[in-house]
Design goal:
Elements lengths: L3 E6 L2 E2 L6 H19 L3 E9 L3 H10 L3 H18 L6 E4 L3 H16 L3 E11 L4 E3 L16 E11 L5 H10 L4 E2 L2 H9 L7 E2 L1 E3 L8 E2 L2 E6 L2 H5 L1 H8 L10 E5 L3 H16 L7 E4 L2 E3 L2 E2 L11 H7 L1 H11 L6 E2 L2 H31 L13 H8 L2 H10 L3 H22 L1 H4 L6 H21 L5 H10 L38
Parallel strand pairs: 1-3, 1-13, 2-3, 3-4, 8-14, 13-14, 15-17
Antiparallel strand pairs: 5-6, 5-7, 7-9, 10-12, 11-12, 15-16
Helix pairs in contact: 2-3, 4-8, 6-9, 10-11, 12-15, 12-17, 14-15, 15-17, 17-18
The structure holds 5'-O-[(L-methionyl)-sulphamoyl]adenosine (MSP).
């Protein structure tokens, strides 16, 4: 295991407010970041916003404000939501920052000097209303949708990057690195796309048509167009923001819609042409759907995370998204499923176990954790102590099977709950002869809860803190190694329990 870990997410477009799909990806990155920190690694998490382009320019014009002001206002929505969800990136980037723009220009100049960028007339179909080139793929039943207005053949000279000369290299690289793209079936999709000849990539737009972009260093009448600017954020911010260069990324987290061609073709080739190292791995997640359709601003079916956070807490929202989606697949978000998970796993499951255990500790031992007497241990305790929940959790996390990692923790929670039923401390409390046995059961139970607080930390950080506070423990960053069973809490003074997940019947 390396000492350092560097993970990134896609940077979101600012032309709409953040929705559940954006939130999922940033929660996923935050969970993996916390997990790597818990392994003792120096983990660095980069996320941010993609702020240039036609749509931003148009949205700002529609509001009659300068594009930078529009971006500044939108950035607040994203950053506020990430804070509310306890998503803590080490660096929140915005592509309108000067240092990023400088790196983009430097890279463009280098590629131009190397002869990788050329100028040519480009003939295409141009939507006058949208002020952009369109392709026939965007026609519906042979007609241009209304939003495009008049579509005309236009000739426009532009700058192109020689993607095509790297096609064979990329194919070989993909074949030689079977774990590069996760899940692996996505790698096959890129290989299939590479069966067809690659065209070169148009990287510019004339300033007369698009002013909201980074000017090309070798022709100030043009700006870079979308991907060339956005992708470079991964390197530009790794370079100038940390004492040492963080590049290459260990993990690029992206949605399946931006794998081909952007991350699976353009990005490796841009890096190759620049002479930079390739990222170690791409983690490609699926989509959250709303009644079968991708949640997206353009479909108009977005789901705002805020009402869920307000009603059930950020941790419940984080838990649901991590538990309900098998990473790489799509999943459907419904209020019913959300409430169901909240009730069964959080309120009745984890919340109830912590509350009843601490209540018994206060009722029978004045809230002070009693010793575990070796002589009183039965197979029940021995089984639970040796339960390899930490190993299971870790092996699932390392495979990015977060839903299974949580499954392993919840199996342990259920077993601990059954343990309470099997040992029935309320019966032991009635018999003074059973005093050392009651000590042992309560000591064991509280230690199990401490273990659980460590295991849930990456996904439910606030709940983990609350449990630890109720146990009277310090709230310093947790190491996963602390999840192993120990006789650590004897004599600990605990607080009276408060409900972690109050019961909720419905969402509104
Ligand atoms: N700006 C580009 C990415 C540039 S990365 C150098 C972009 N932005 S986006 O706002 O459209 O999407 C940002 C991320 O959110 C993408 O990874 C995308 O897959 C993800 N999601 C957007 N909607 C989603 C769902 N409904 N479900 C899950 N994630 C989805 O693309």
């Amino acid at each position: 295991m390396s000492e350092r870990y560097f993970l990134t997410t896609a940077i979101d477009y600012v032309n709409g407010r953040p929705h559940l799909g954006h939130a999922y990806e940033k929660i996923l990155a935050d969970v993996l970041n916390r997990y790597h920190l818990s392994l003792g690694q120096d983990s660095f998490f980069l996320t941010g916003l993609d702020e240039h382009g036609q749509k931003v320019q148009q949205s700002a014009q529609a509001q009659n404000i300068p594009p930078q002001q529009f971006c500044d206002e939108m950035a607040v929505h994203f950053q506020t939501l990430w804070k509310r969800l306890h998503i803590h990136p080490n660096r929140f980037v915005r592509t309108t920052e000067n240092n990023h723009k400088e790196v983009v220009r430097k890279f463009l100049q280098k590629l131009h000097d190397q002869g990788e960028i050329y100028f040519k007339e480009h003939e295409g179909l141009y939507s006058v209303r949208q002020e952009q080139f369109v392709t026939e793929k965007e026609m519906v039943n042979g007609q241009w949708p209304e939003i495009f207005g008049e579509v005309v053949k236009t000739v426009e000279p532009n700058y192109f990057f020689k993607l095509s000369s790297y096609q064979d290299w990329l194919r070989t690289y993909l074949q030689e690195h079977p774990e590069w793209i996760m899940p692996s079936f996505r790698r096959n999709e890129i290989l299939a796309a590479l069966e067809r000849p690659l065209g070169d990539l148009c990287i510019s737009r004339p300033k007369s048509r698009l002013s909201w972009g980074i000017p090309l260093p070798f022709d100030e009448e043009y700006v870079t167009y979308v991907w060339f600017d956005a992708l470079i954020n991964y390197v530009s911010f790794a370079y100038y923001d940390t004492p040492e260069d963080r590049w290459p990324a260990d993990l690029h987290i992206i949605g399946k819609d931006i794998l081909i061609p952007a991350h699976g073709v353009y990005w490796p080739i841009i890096l190759r042409a620049l002479g930079l190292t390739q990222p170690r791995q791409f983690l490609v997640h699926g989509w959250w759907l709303n009644r079968g359709a991708k949640i997206s601003k353009s479909v108009g079916n977005t789901i705002d995370p805020i009402p869920y956070i307000e009603k059930c807490g950020a941790d419940a929202f984080r838990y649901f998204l991590m538990r309900e989606m098998a990473l790489g697949q799509d999943a459907d978000f419904t209020d019913d499923k959300f409430i169901q998970r909240y009730q069964s796993d959080l309120s009745k499951g984890l919340g109830n176990l912590v509350q009843r255990s601490l209540s018994m500790l206060h009722r029978y031992r004045q809230g002070i954790v009693p010793p575990i007497h070796e002589s009183c241990l039965t197979d029940l305790e021995k089984d639970l102590q040796t339960e390899n929940v930490t190993t299971n959790y870790q092996s699932f996390m390392d495979k990015f099977e977060i839903h299974h990692a949580l499954g392993a923790v919840w199996t342990y929670i259920q077993r601990t709950d059954q343990y309470v039923e099997q040992t029935a401390p309320w019966k032991l409390a009635k018999d003074p002869a059973q005093s050392t046995r009651l000590d042992t059961v309560l000591g064991h139970l509280i230690e199990s809860i401490r273990r659980i607080s460590v295991l849930i930390d990456a996904v439910l950080p606030q709940t983990s803190l609350q449990i630890r506070a109720q146990l009277g423990l310090a709230t310093e960053p947790l190491r996963l190694s602390a999840a192993s069973f120990g006789n650590t809490l004897t004599g600990q003074v605990t607080l009276a329990p408060t409900a972690l997940f109050p019961r909720i019947e419905e969402l509104d």
